[in-house]
Structure formats: C-alpha cells, structure tokens
Amino acid sequence: MNGPTTGPWARHDTPDYAEIHPASGKLKSAIALVGKPEDANLIAAAPDMLAALKMVHRGMMQWAIMDHAPEWKVISEAIAKAEGRT
C-alpha cells in the first residue's frame, strides 16, 4: 500500500449518488461512491481536515500544551484513525 490518495478531493454529483475524486483530475476512477450528499461533503473534506488537525497537533507540541489540553487526546486519536493506526 502506498498510502491514501492525496487531496484535495472534489465531489461530483450523478443522478443517483456522488462520486469523490481527486480535485487534480489525475485519477480517473472514483475514490468513493456516496449516497447521501452530507456524507459526500464530509468525505471530500477529509484530506483538508486531516491536514488542519496535523497543524494543530504540531502547534500543541511546539507550545508544550499537550499534557494540559483534553483536546490533545481527541486530536491524536483522530489522526491515528485517519492514518489507519487504530
């Protein structure tokens, strides 16, 4: 496995479902087929949200606030889940 398809991702609607594709258009097949528009938006935003969480994570480490913030555990677990480490 070479890791996930890099973002950003974009949503393309069909009459029956939404397709999630890399926004670059380099991958011709869909990453995901999604029935609910709300789910399609969330999935398409996943690479951007992961990148943002990683930025917050690094900032918390830099400022050494990870031991004092309850968000540290939640952020760390979300990143691990997205990276397939849980």
Question: Care to give the gist of this entry?
Answer:
The protein contains 2 helices and 3 strands; from the N terminus they run E-E-E-H-H.
The N- to C-terminal Cα distance equals: 17 Å
- Give the tally of β-strands: 3
Mean pLDDT: 87
Largest sheet geometry: 3 strands, antiparallel
**pLDDT < 50 stretches:** none
The total count of helices amounts to 2
Strand order across the biggest sheet? 1-2-3
Q: Helix coverage percent of residues?
A: 40-55%
Overall structural class, as computed from helix and strand content, comes to: alpha+beta
| Helix-strand string | EEEHH
Strand content: 15-25%
Tally of domains: 1
Principal-axis shape equals elongated
Oligomerization state: single chain
Cα Rg = 16 Å
Layout: helices, strands, pairs:
Layout lengths: L8 E5 L4 E5 L9 E3 L2 H26 L8 H12 L4
Antiparallel strand pairs: 1-2, 2-3
Helix pairs in contact: 1-2
Describe, in plain words, how this protein is organized in 3D.
- The protein has helices at residues 37-62, 71-82, and strands at 9-13, 18-22, 32-34.
- With 86 residues, the protein is α+β, with helices and mostly antiparallel strands.
- It has one domain.
- Strands 1-2-3 form a three-stranded antiparallel beta sheet, with helices on one face.
- The longest helix has 26 residues, at 37-62.
- The mean pLDDT is 87.
